[in-house]
Amino acid sequence: MSRRLHISVRVLLLIALFAIGAFAEDRYVVKILGDANAVAKRHGLTLVKSLGGSAAGTHVFSSKGIDASIMLHQLTSDFSVRTAESDTPVVLPGIKPASSIVRPAASNTQFSISSTLVRYHNSFVASGYLNQPAVNVINLSQAQKLATGAGIVATIDTGADFTHPGLAPSLTAGWDFVNNWPLGQEQADLNTGGNPVLGQETTPILDQETTPILDGGTAIVLTQETTPILDQETTPILDGKKYPAYGHGTMVASMIHLVAPDAKIMPLRAFGANGAATISQIVAAIHFAVDRHADVINMSFSVTTDSPALKNAMTFATDNGLILVAAAGNSGQATLVWPAAYANVIGVGATDDFFVRASFSNYGNALVTLAAPGTDMITMYPKNHYAKVSGTSFSAPLVAGAAALLVDLNQKTDEKAAAAALSNAHPIGQELGAGELDLYKALISLPKKLDGNNQDQ
């Protein structure tokens, strides 16, 4: 009897320990000066990985059975630690939890655009994509008489489809930080037996079927407002509950290509098709872009809490001459989200095609540098599809493409010069910064010569 009671007590104790997270694994992204193994030994941590290239000195550690707040206090008190924060993986299906994303029958998800293929610089694209209303709003045709894009635009997203005939000629090899292999192919998760996190060095991803909307304090949110509506019948792999972020990166890249067809696009795949990422993967992607001499980085995601590691990466990028563009988010509020709220990042809100702020777009001059169309955008989608979708995710790459046009005019264009030029926008008020993106006005305002201080020579 006493033995049975002893076993029961032990079982209850184990249950209690699990309930308080004693056996949960926590991860931390830590920037240190010195030996990472020594830091791990001092604090009883496991070194999971060390970032390479210009991100050297940043490491990911894990621990079990120690309260995360206590561990962070210990780390920040360590003489060799510069910054430390949680690197917990999160599920990022966009603005809504995956369990609420329900695709209607295929017959109800189709929309009609002109599918006539037309030559567009180095590829053939659907004429409906090329002639969508947003093209006139941003004054694209007049701007492209001056520039058609140059340099490399990196996208930190779910990758891009290297097989899409309209997009493939503009893509250049990036990296897959989810599976830690080359290229940045959108379909990577679909080609690993349907396991969206195969090879990902993170704690197992949460079950999307039961996960509610995550606490914005830790979530990195892909800023897609609506589920894509496809022009063709969807295939079984496009189940929104299993792959809620699939296609996001291809759609974003196609908006850059629309504006700057002669720029190269480098997909840096930090998000899986299930929408999962970590701060450390984002930081690694930023440093990869700098090390591979990208000119522009597009970031169609947001966090609602500032991150020291993310902020440091932003500073490193702009110090090296890169132009940073980020989506303002889809909460429809005057709020701050990062990276768009950083002073050295161009934050982009969304409008409709009539210069009216989209109901979902965040706003506020402390967040939004300028706005661009983001409602019912016609984008490319994996497997030679096209889609209609809304969100600040698709406003930001229009501005990233605009930055590539500025680089075409002057290779010395940096964040400060680009922000100044792009602020020559169409004034519309509505707490959307300088107003609606006007590509032509931005291009003609750029000084023909720039020195290191962004002044006329």
Description:
The radius of gyration is 23 Å and the shape is globular. Helix 8 (248-259) packs parallel to helix 11 and helix 9 runs parallel beside helix 10 (308-319). 26% of the residues lie in helices and 19% in strands. The strands form 5 sheets. An 8-stranded mixed beta sheet has the order 9-8-12-7-13-15-16-17, with helices on both faces. The protein is α/β, with parallel strands linked by helices. It folds into 2 domains: 2-86, Alpha-Beta Plaits; 98-445, Rossmann fold, CATH 3.40.50.200. It contains 13 helices and 19 strands.
Give the SSE map.
Layout: H1 2-19, E1 25-32, H2 36-43, E2 46-50, E3 58-64, H3 68-76, E4 81-86, H4 106-109, E5 117-120, E6 123-126, H5 127-130, H6 133-137, H7 140-143, E7 152-157, E8 174-176, E9 181-183, E10 221-222, E11 229-230, H8 248-259, E12 264-269, H9 279-291, E13 296-299, E14 301-302, H10 308-319, E15 323-327, E16 346-351, E17 370-373, E18 377-381, E19 385-389, H11 396-409, H12 415-422, H13 439-445
